[in-house]
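Hi R.,

As promised on Friday, here is the backbone we talked about, encoded as structure tokens. Could you run it through your design pipeline when you get a chance and send me back a sequence?
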């Protein structure tokens, strides 16, 4: 009998890119980051996605993951440091790197991958309250529907095309 071919390696690439200041010059300005995800893993609903999230949303996500993961340690986020020596650009770049390292570790963890909040955070543009509602079954869509709806809406693709040289 012939040996069966080896299963393809499951690979998930996640990138945190393109920090942008939103509401620049106003008291409620903040920086958000593009999260680009490309995967062949069955764990994910959409094979490619692209969303924008801010640091505060990462803080929420980590807290939720910790709640659900029990004893499984959740990776650390880059510090909240309001005191920073150096330029704003340096701070944002350090934070971007830290957020990317956080997500790279999270998506490799089977326990954390089982949390629907993570999937909605990475593959839909739902706000935090809407993610909570969806996970609790109070949204208008299931978790899978919300992700597929966002994937079909083309938002994820358009941004990716724009950023190509």
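Update: got your reply. Pasting your designed sequence below so it's all in one thread:
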């Amino acid at each position: 009998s012939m040996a069966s071919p080896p299963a393809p390696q499951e690979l998930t690439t996640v990138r945190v890119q393109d920090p942008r200041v939103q509401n620049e010059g106003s008291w409620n300005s903040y920086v958000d980051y593009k999260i680009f995800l490309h995967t062949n893993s069955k764990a994910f609903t959409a094979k490619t996605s692209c969303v924008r999230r801010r640091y505060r949303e990462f803080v929420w996500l980590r807290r939720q993951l910790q709640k659900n993961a029990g004893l499984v340690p959740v990776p650390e986020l880059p510090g909240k440091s309001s005191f920073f020596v150096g330029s704003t650009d340096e701070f944002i770049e350090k934070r971007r790197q830290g957020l990317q390292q956080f997500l790279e570790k999270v998506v490799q963890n089977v326990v954390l991958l089982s949390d629907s909040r993570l999937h909605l955070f990475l593959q839909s543009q739902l706000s935090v309250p809407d993610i909570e509602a969806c996970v609790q079954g109070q949204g208008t869509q299931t978790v899978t529907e919300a992700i597929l709806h966002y994937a079909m809406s083309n938002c994820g693709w358009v941004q990716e095309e724009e950023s190509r040289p």
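One thing I noticed while checking it: The beta strands are 12-22, 30-39, 48-54.

Thanks again,
M.
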